[in-house]
Amino acid sequence: MPLTPIRPASPQARPALSVGRGLLSVVFAATAWGTAGAAAALLYRGSGLGPLGLTFWRAAGGFVLLLAVRLLRPRRPARPRSVLRVLTTGAGLTLFQAAYFCAVKSTGLAVATVVTLGAGPVMIALAARLAMGERLGRGGVVAVAGAPAGLAVLVVGGGPAAESTAGVLLAVLSAAGYAGITLLTRWHGSRGTAGDPLDTALWSFGVCALALLPAALGEGIAPDATGLGRTVLLLGYLAVVPTALAYALYFAGAAVLRAATVSVVALIEPVSAAALAVLLLGERLTAATLAGTVILLAAVAALACQEAAAGRAAPAAPVSTPAPASPSTPAPAPVPAADVD
């Protein structure tokens, strides 16, 4: 039978973001992530930066921008922050980003994207079933099965790729990092213990930048002087749109959607990347690429419709006046919508 999303048991834990807004947030994030690949491809051509240096600057730039937004927004009541949760999310983000960019350099953009985003939904669906009891209805099973098929068709349509065992293994490692942060965000969101999405993204990128700094220094952190203006502009875009903005919205949406739904909706990323490759990089759009795009969008639409239907069918929690929490046991707070949406 169709899956009913896990709902918080009390009004205090009820998320502020609706299912519909959660879907829009993840859709925007996935679309923005697709542009990161094009920006990275352009940076690899003339900046002199390697994958670890590029990932460091992306994380550091996202941290600085989100910190500025946090300092400028109106002051909000302080809420408890789990250091372990921040460190775990930051570690997952570091693994996801660094392993992915290394896989792109090792085996090419198409293969790295297919393996990462094809393995991710499978890992997430299995782990969500075991850890959180999430079940997929028939439509969800078809959608999750169709998503890797669509990605595979996209790779075939993109032409031959230089595959390598190391690159594929790095992409699988990246998928594990992505699965980890998706499941962790959903687990806390289902219990009303998710933090502010902006804070989650902010400190996660801080952890990512600090973790990557030694390796980035060893690889080479300074871009080439030639074309420095172009490099700065591309790094600025990479830090603002597919990083600071996209991840703040992603964490907000992932807290209120099923983990498997988030993983499949994120497959919009290779679709937007394929469109940019055709429009901006001059790559040829083949019939196989079109077919893969249609399959991916059908999978996204199927899970989005099922998620919305499950949200409408879920009974609303009764409204009551919450009792004051004791000093040692703070009451769970709602997950706020990201300030940047």
Descriptive report:
The protein contains eleven helices and no strands. Mean pLDDT is 74; it is low at 1-15 and 315-341. It is globular. The protein has one domain (17-72, 81-309). With 341 residues, the protein is mainly α. α2 (51-72) runs antiparallel to α7 and α3 packs antiparallel against α4. The two termini are 34 Å apart.
- Share of helical residues: over 70%
Distance between the termini: 34 Å
What's the number of structural domains?
A: 1
What's the number of helices? 11
Strand content: under 5%
Short characterization:
This protein is mainly alpha-helical and 341 residues long. The protein has helices at residues 19-46, 51-72, 83-107, 109-132, 138-157, 165-190, 197-219, 228-254, 259-265, 268-279, 287-313. It has one domain.
